[in-house]
Design a protein that fits this description.
Elements (H helix, E strand, L loop, with lengths): L6 E9 L11 E11 L5 E12 L4 E7 L7 E2 L3 E11 L3 E12 L4 E12 L6
Antiparallel strand pairs: 1-2, 2-6, 3-4, 3-5, 3-7, 7-8
Length: about 120
């Protein structure tokens, strides 16, 4: 029987006011992702997929190898953390997606990333 890898993700987003230009409809956000391997064997992150939706409902898809230029191997009981960013035309938006990973035997699997919000502080209530 093949043991399904147990991966947990946690995401925190922040508005980067110093890099944003609201008059030009440019809102910059950073998000930090922590990927924890709660399983008993190593896994590797190969690629990512993001669906970014701005406040007007406009959608952008982002696909690519790894994250921040890496395809990290995450050992059991350890984690990998990275920070990246997104630029929206609206002060409110959301992201969701998945990671394509492989287990220690090379079997592929997906880790879904639930929807999280990108919002300037005055938009959160």
């Amino acid at each position: 029987m093949i043991e399904q890898p147990l991966i947990c993700t946690q995401i925190q987003s922040v508005y980067l006011e110093s890099q944003s230009i609201p008059e030009e409809e440019r809102y910059v956000f950073a998000y930090t992702v922590t990927i924890r391997n709660l399983g008993r064997s190593r896994v590797q992150l190969l690629s990512r997929y993001w669906l970014i939706t701005n406040g007007n409902g406009s959608k952008t898809e982002v696909r690519g190898d790894g994250v921040v230029g890496e395809q990290p191997v995450i050992l059991p009981a350890s984690e990998f953390q990275y920070t990246s960013g997104a630029v929206l035309e609206t002060p409110l938006g959301m992201m969701e997606g998945y990671y394509e990973m492989v287990d220690h035997l090379g079997h592929p699997f997906q880790v879904l990333i639930p929807v999280f919000r990108l919002a300037i502080p005055i938009m959160i209530h």
